[in-house]
Amino acid sequence: MIITSGGALPTGTSFYLRGDQANGSTSFTDLSTNSLSISANGSIAHSNNRGKIGSTSIYFDGSSKNLYRSNNSAFHFGTGEFKIDMWVNFPNFDGSINKVLMSQGGWGTQTDYAGWTFYINSGERLKFLASNASTGTFDSWYANLESNTLTWSNNTWYHVSIARNSNGEMKLFRDGQILSLVTATNATGGITISPGSRNFRIGIASDETVASASEMYLDNILVTKGSGSGRSGNFTPDTTHYGNTTTTNATGNFISNAITAPSSTSKMGAIITYQDQAGTNTLNTDIVLQLSADNGSNFTTATMTAMPDFASGIKMAKVNDLAVTAGTQLKYKISFANQASGSKEARIRGVSLQY
């Protein structure tokens, strides 16, 4: 059983994507308050071949397949604080090619270099590039941060980050440690990072240069911006998903807080959304829903029926007009059985009460 409960995202979160869907899921949800729509160019999917935080991550095969959306202010950093964080794993690290992690411009033809790119170059160095040039012949990178040469092993998770603090200093990090820079063009001074005009992309340069792509797995992809969102010193990378507390058990249950109804009710309904994180969970056996109108003094067990999927990999079930002991303090209780890590794991995504 995996139980998740909402919590605060990091300060200034403007984009947040997790690799926590069921194996094969093609659902990609920005969990920031911006709720940006994310599209896939090609068959990008969550995969249980690698899991850093949960049992899945997002797999890129090194071709032109990528995640993208139109140019958006969520990735316009201006002169302020910002950071980009993610976990990355390479099944077959190739030090001779560039490996773009995220970009919104900053790489491409000589008619449009404006924007920025965060990547690992063909010299095995972590880099952040930005240019303000929008048309004409390319002259130079306005910002160019390049780490010392690093060692990257196959099938190993690395946390990588670019961040600017309140003093206008930009730094590169790997596994929470500040990296020495062999190039540090405009790394200080709070220079303007151009937003560019091209699409935002994950897993490839924003002009979709295939030579910029590499086979890799990504998880916990975070972008923050604005006051208090940056980073100055070494840190310990998070190993849980932001905004959530995760508990793993073979069995168990959780009970909601009470919702006050305007008048006494003796019938309740509910809709739940859930995910088979592993295996296939059976309604009313592996996932059991109970409802109460008297603050949990008496729970009545529901018989849920399946509904059409809410989204790829996200299932729905409902119960209508369940007779309960009358009251005004409404609660639900969800219990789990037959759970086993890696073979049967239920993840509840949402519960809506009807009364």
Catalogue the unreliable spans.
1-7, 245-249
Order of helices and strands: EEEEEEEEEEEEEEEEEEEEEEEEE
User: How many helical stretches?
Assistant: 0
Q: Tell the overall outline.
A: elongated
Q: Distance between termini?
A: 28 Å
Structural class: mainly beta
Largest sheet: 8 strands, antiparallel
Count of β-strands:
25
What is the C-alpha radius of gyration, as a whole number of Å? Answer: 23 Å
CATH topology of the largest domain: Jelly Rolls
Helix content: under 10%
Strand content: over 45%
Q: How many domain units?
A: 2
What is the CATH level 1 assignment of the largest domain? Mainly Beta
What is the architecture of the largest domain at the second tier of CATH? Sandwich
The pLDDT mean sits at 89
